[in-house]
Specification:
The protein is built from 12 helices and 11 strands. By secondary structure, the protein is of the alpha/beta class. The chain has 2 domains: about 120 residues, no CATH class; about 210 residues, 3-Layer(aba) Sandwich (Rossmann fold). The strands form 3 sheets. It has a 7-stranded mixed beta sheet, with helices on both faces. α2 crosses α3, α6 packs across α7 and α8 packs across α9.
């Protein structure tokens, strides 16, 4: 049995406590085997096939993600859960908690699936306030943004994320300029880009700088046609590596003043006269990120054009992991007439 229904368990790790009736005395060697399996990288031949598929228009990038950044995603501590996935694997008792979840339902966690597949399903379905994986971006939406707004073949991604926007730019033959303070991530993205070019015999251009978007890059001034990203949602995700925009103790107003405002100031300098800035952001908890982003952009001389609806993106929310609609605000460096975009353009399964 996965648990004793009459017994409550208390798991304490890194100063935080979980009270639960889910716990199973899985042997320690089995716990360590699950940890090893979680971090095991796919064979590079499979990665090559995934890189080739992306070049040919494919939208599934799970093998690429697992190979290059899965371990870095595990470091991310979300706002609501107590721990990151990496921290879960530091605790035998938390591994046992999730294994108890696996044993709770043969229908949800079929015995025909591998142990690690079921364990990852438990992380996804039962993470709740315990641990959750950060979301990735749908590559199809990046393709459509670049198709509509790329005007000079130069694209700036002011928060690189997990490489999806990089891959989209490369396959759409758009020069990619990116900034991100996570030094481990930047190294992985550069390797991803190098491997993409090698595997597909291409020479797609990329320039990824290891610092935050609030740091100005003089040589990019007046060169970028479109800037588009999904920046940090204040303290929703703590990446734990590099000089991140949010650190424990940072107030929301400090984050707006010291990260978001200088980021938008820099983007305005980077854009050519007809350039556009697109920001995918959403309010959470009591933080009015949409209104505050727009207010800062307009105070710096940007002209609001419209908000596109990005449908059914999976984003870890402040409470649970839900499919939600998100807005992509479009701004122009110079005044333009709003253009109506068919809503169906941004419907993704």
């Amino acid at each position: 049995m996965p648990k004793n229904k009459n017994k409550k368990y208390q798991i304490t790790h890194l100063g935080k406590t979980l009270n639960t009736d889910h716990w199973y005395d899985l042997p320690e060697d089995k716990c360590l085997a699950l940890k090893a399996a979680y971090y095991e990288k796919p064979d590079f031949d499979l990665v090559k096939k995934n890189l080739e598929a992306v070049y040919n228009g494919g939208t599934v990038i799970s093998t690429i993600t697992s190979y290059y950044v899965k371990d870095l995603m595990a470091k991310v501590k979300l706002e609501s859960p107590r721990w990151s996935i990496e921290q879960v694997f530091e605790s035998i008792d938390l591994i046992r908690y999730f294994w108890s979840r696996v044993l709770s339902s043969d229908k949800v966690y079929p015995k025909t699936d591998s142990d690690i597949k079921n364990f990852e399903a438990a992380l996804r379905l039962s993470g709740g306030g315990v641990a959750m994986k950060p979301s990735n971006y749908p590559i199809k939406s990046v393709d459509e943004i670049l198709s509509k707004y790329n005007i000079n073949g130069k694209y700036y991604d002011f928060s690189c994320g997990w490489g999806v926007r990089l891959l989209s730019a490369m396959r759409n033959r758009v020069e990619y300029y990116g900034t991100d303070p996570n030094n481990l991530l930047v190294d992985r993205l550069r390797q991803m880009a190098t491997d993409y070019n090698t595997v597909n015999d291409t020479s797609a251009f990329y320039d990824i700088r290891c610092h935050g978007s609030e740091t100005f890059v003089p040589e990019w001034e007046n060169t970028i046609g479109v800037a588009f990203s999904s920046p940090p949602y204040f303290n929703l995700e703590d990446y734990g590596v590099g000089n991140q925009s949010y650190k424990p103790g940072t107030s929301y107003q400090e984050w707006l003043d010291n990260y978001l405002r200088p980021t938008i100031e820099n983007i305005k300098k980077y854009l050519i006269e007809d350039g556009k800035m697109l920001v995918n952001i959403k309010d959470f908890l009591d933080y009015k990120l949409c209104a505050d982003t727009r207010a800062i952009a307009e105070s710096l001389g940007f002209h609001y054009v419209e908000t596109l609806t990005l449908k059914n993106i999976t984003r870890p929310s402040a409470k649970v992991d839900l499919n939600t609609d998100e807005g992509i605000m479009v701004f122009s460096k110079n005044p333009v007439q709003p253009e109506i975009v068919p809503e169906s353009l941004f419907v993704f399964g």
